[in-house]
Amino acid sequence: MDGRQEKGPGTAGGNATGFGWALETTLVHAGRVPRAPVSTAMPIYPSTSFQAPTPEELDAVLGGEAAGYSYTRHANPTVDALANAVAALEGGETAVCYGSGMAAIDAAFYAAGVRAGDRVLLSRDLYGASLNLAQGIWGEAGVETVVEDFGDLDRVEAALRRHAPRAMLFEVLSNPLLRVADGPALVALAARYGTVSIVDNTFTTPLVCRPLAWGADLVVHSATKYLGGHGDATGGVVVGRAAYRARLLQYVKLRGAVLGPFEAWLVHRGLRTLAVRYGRQCDNARLLAERLDASGRFARVVYPLLPHHPSRALADRILGGRGGAVVTLELRGGREQAFDFLRRLTLVGSATSVGDVYTLCLYPVMASHRNLAPAERARMGITDGTVRLAVGLEHVDDILADVLQAAGTD
After folding, report:
1. Is residue 332 flagged as an active site residue?
2. pTM, two decimal places
3. Domains of the chain, first to last
């Protein structure tokens, strides 16, 4: 026996690979489906490369002259399905996916044309890692960072006039103090001074606002958060006008910040329940904030729809009655009480993300804003007693009971 078969392997639909192959060849080729069925769920395409019917067609795809697939670092059908879905939700002409939300922010700077000698204007209230990226990685590349209070439109305009930044980045709802940005006004100012506006819409999602409708140039999402919604996939997306597509694609091709097809499939599956999940999380967060505020057990309860929140009037106008799904608390005892609070939690997990079905608690000083100097955190309003609750889908009474018992008695 030399390992060869007299006939190729039989299949229910006939032999798709031919007859007379050696067993080694059959192992490689047997079972390939010649014509894919129409699936009710988006298939996962784990392939690193794709064949074209003719060399001419492959040449056109690789040359960017025709749509199609050649290599997953360039494009993948499962990943593209997610990108197209997010583009539709945001009302964008194009979207490109990346391996994380941070990669998406980095790609947005690149797509905006930021280069050595340029300046970028950043909101003082940005997520700590976003500030670190701009000040560290881009700073080392010769880009100057200007940080300003985006709650003061006069100061923002003065910074735009004085520094002529290439790009401007802000979050609609800041992390973790939940300050609401006047997105339409900020975007209009950026356009007036020729600055590319980049808006992080992660905390608010397209269900609350769609910054491209304000005139924003690029919208960024950490798909790890609410878009995916189950804490099992890391990813990022940038959405914008078609004019930015070439550079957004070039970034993923050359930097290799690829979103894998399995992660893309998980995020896309989560996206289908976004409206149901996020609506429940926002409702839970509002009820939780109101009850925690009424308890008098905390130095401060932060939520955009509470009457004493400094952005309350703006929240009504920009957020349309939804204050997001995050509640931030100020504990009176500083770091020691914060650690004690985290240890006491039983239902609520202590973890470093938002958007999951579970309620999670983060200590910014230890996690999201760890790499910022204490003085910089203080300027932002983040103290050693600040903790952030990312509210999940549990019954709000159970979340409330756990948070109150973890806070202890005064």
Report:
1. no
2. 0.90
3. 1-35 (no CATH), 58-271 (3.40.640.10), 274-407 (3.90.1150.10)
